[in-house]
Amino acid sequence: MKIVRLFRRLGIAAALLLVMLATACIPLPADPNWGHLSLAGDPQQILFAFHDRIVLINPIDGSVSQLRDPEGNPRYDDQNNPRQWSVQVTGGEQTRFYSTPLAGADNTLIAASYDKRLFEIDFPNARVISSDGIPVGGHIVTDPISDGERLYVGLSEGDLIALDMTDLASRVWTLETQRGVWSEPLLADGRLYVSSMDHNLYAIDAETGSEIWRLDLGGALSESPVLYEGNLYVGSFARKLFRISLDGQITAEYPTTEWIWGTPAIVDDTLYVGDAAGWVYALALSEDGFTPVWSRQVATRVIRATPIVTEDSVIVASRDHKIYWVSRNTGAAIFERNTDAEILANMLVIDSEDNPSLSEPLLIVSTMANDKLLFAYTLDQGDLRWRYAR
Amino acid sequence: MDIIVNVFVTLLTFLYSVLNHDMVLAIVVFTIITRLLLYPLTAQSLRSSKAMQQLQPELKALQEKYKDDREKLAQEQMAMYRQYGINPLGGCLPMIIQMPIFFALYGAIQFALAASPTHLLDLSGRLLVPGLDNAIPLNASWLGMNLALPPNISESPIGFVLIGFIVVTTWMQMKLSMPPQPKLAPGEQPNAAAATSQSMTTIMPLMYVFFGLSFSIGVSIYIIATNVAMITQGLVSGQSKLSYLTGKRDDPATTPSVLTKVEGRKVSKNATPSKPKSISDGKNKPTTQKTGSKAK
Q1: What CATH number has the domain bearing residue A324?
Q2: Which of these, A49, A252, B207, B233, could form a disulfide with A97 (CB 3.0-4.6 Å)?
Q3: CB A161, CB A153: distance < 8 Å
Q4: pTM tops 0.95
Q5: For the complex shown, is ipTM > 0.85?
């Protein structure tokens, strides 16, 4: 009898162990998206949106900016603690920010949350105007943009929607796609160029939402196109880079090793882009199309962020935790920096033109690790100036 | 593990692309393929369970004979299992082997369905066949639910139905794979391995409720399809009977035996057979006792 009981208990223990093993083997759910960097305020400071918070960071030392009154004096709360510029929405469904807040009217910011809502933020006071937010009907993983009259928001499951800037609860029009919009549209000359995960690049009348043309590029489009000298340039999961005329014709294409995730950078008629295998391509642009200047496997994992191009170098960041400085002319490695965390967000450059207190331009890099969210390096030498952790 | 996941991801994506972009159908077909490949293991498990059941009379006899000597009973039971080539835990081995496959499939479904940009990033580089990129991203929508996410009961009651199917099919599959044990006489000890198996029949469906609520709907569909495939395999091969669900035992008179004694060990050329020994039985009469294994 004792053996029977022992066997039964062993059986239960084995079952429990199985459950624990299964749970341990299930990967913890990662954040669905990465952080977004932008500049805000006067003088400009770093606005960083990631996970449950939006913060304003002082570019001098990486500290969270302190709220100040109109005279510039620091503000304090009831316990005499300095008030910091940090926004976190509490209550109701969990709110997550994975896109750059947009400047709205009357010194406000419009922040798009992953939990299908927009929030208006009182910028001087770092205060959410209404914690209920404005429902938009879909998850948001991309920056909203505006032409002053309408706010355009891509939804990750399907549509691009246009909202009235004076009444964000009022929808003006909807563009339906099959697989969602994961990047902000490009707005140019009254048109929106929309990259969709359903493989199509759409050209839309920004005022009416009517489709002008759509072009199937054979693979998902996860990032915005760039407009340069009358042509659109965009990469896709078809492992190709495309040049597209404004009337919707493919006029050139270039094969890449893996998916292209990020928006290319174009400087002095040369296009720079990274792919999901860690390759970086430098392609000269001409009427004939793309002419390779150099291509090199710079990183060991995905390069998603748009490259930063300086006078001498191209700077790329990878999911392999590193930031690479390579020669702009040859692609040869110059140096690299290791952050020990995945880098997927676009990088940001801030200099003395943005903030006169800065003595040198800084490269701001965001990772997905809470204990090392932001790094600030000098742009040319890669010297670490500060880190921000949450 | 990565190579297994990549193969699964590639296969799933291929099936999706040829099956009219129907992810549920792709998961079901994938399940059928894996079940066919794992059939030898599954068949062995069913045979093992059936053999255990048919061995019950002999096991009972041993229990009666050695009821006061647990150690001897255990030894004799193991000897009997060896004699018939039975592994008392033979039903568990296929399950254990399938666990890495299950985990790899779980990962493959999560990667393939990619509910968000971060998840989709994990998919890049995993497609082993060129040209499958044009199927990405896969359509994760089914009956108003997202196949890449766990069921949201508050948003769709279909999640309840799914969990219910998991529980029912898991219970049926376990019941059908383990023939009912004979009723115990008053005071009779239940067979330990059989008792464990019966416990698992109760515990496993409950565990799968937890799995169903935690895992993505795509994985739940795989679990249901797997259970249905295993039930079908057992019934078609004759290893299982629907009567097992009601606890009805096989009629020993009409059920063919699956027990076959393992042949004796081969004797090497150089070995000499052991000679019979004469020993005293305490009554001054010599007794001859044969030793050694049976000759062929």
Answers
A1: 2.40.10.480
A2: A49
A3: yes
A4: no
A5: no
